[in-house]
């Protein structure tokens, strides 16, 4: 069950990229400490969200074991994570009209915070912001954020008509709250981009399990 007092929020796990630095394939299907990254992300986010969907392109059957609705990009050509966020906002508007907020998280982040959704909502409500994104240490992680379903047509225009690609450029148009988590001893937004990152993730998994 999501935290009491936090608005109903649909979670989208972004797995729609090409994973070129990993040599292709699905990064969330990589295993860390005997569990897929996707399994870890689902376990971390399902208690915080009112439902989860998976944004991925290609044959959805490869994710069947996870039992999530798979939503593909509607904008072709792999234009980046904003396409996945847009697909999720459109899906929420069509299928979960009671939901006003979508939380996006990269599907290659195995150690996401347990208070991610609550803190993002708290900050954007306190600061009267339209959007909220996560940061750790000095680094912001705009792919991990809270998005208003009502902004989906503006996002579509930015992506399709203006050819805007960078999340930062889009979020700069709105009042934005940024919430920072400590990066030590474990950065909760560590993500696995390369095969070497998987080895580092194995080491961090032990710290995560101890936390
Ligand atoms: N839906 C969608 N998601 C994307 C796209 N490109 C990247 N992402 C997602 O955005 C997040 C950050 O992506 P990156 O790590 O920068 O890109 P990537 O394709 O996963 O990996 P590289 O090709 O190695 O850069 C990941 O969750 C990706 O799955 C895209 O074109 N569409």
Automatic annotation (TrEMBL):
Catalytic activity field: Mo-molybdopterin + GTP + H(+) = Mo-molybdopterin guanine dinucleotide + diphosphate
Keyword terms: Cytoplasm, GTP-binding, Magnesium, Metal-binding, Molybdenum cofactor biosynthesis, Nucleotide-binding, Nucleotidyltransferase, Transferase
Molecular function as annotated in GO: nucleotidyltransferase activity
Enzyme kind, highest EC tier: transferase
Coiled-coil stretches: none
The record's note on its domains: The N-terminal domain determines nucleotide recognition and specific binding, while the C-terminal domain determines the specific binding to the target protein.
Function, as annotated: Transfers a GMP moiety from GTP to Mo-molybdopterin (Mo-MPT) cofactor (Moco or molybdenum cofactor) to form Mo-molybdopterin guanine dinucleotide (Mo-MGD) cofactor.
Family: Belongs to the MobA family.
Family annotation (NCBIfam families): molyb_mobA (TIGR02665)
Subunit architecture: Monomer.
Stated name of the protein: Molybdenum cofactor guanylyltransferase
The species this protein was found in: Bradyrhizobium diversitatis
Gene (UniProt): mobA
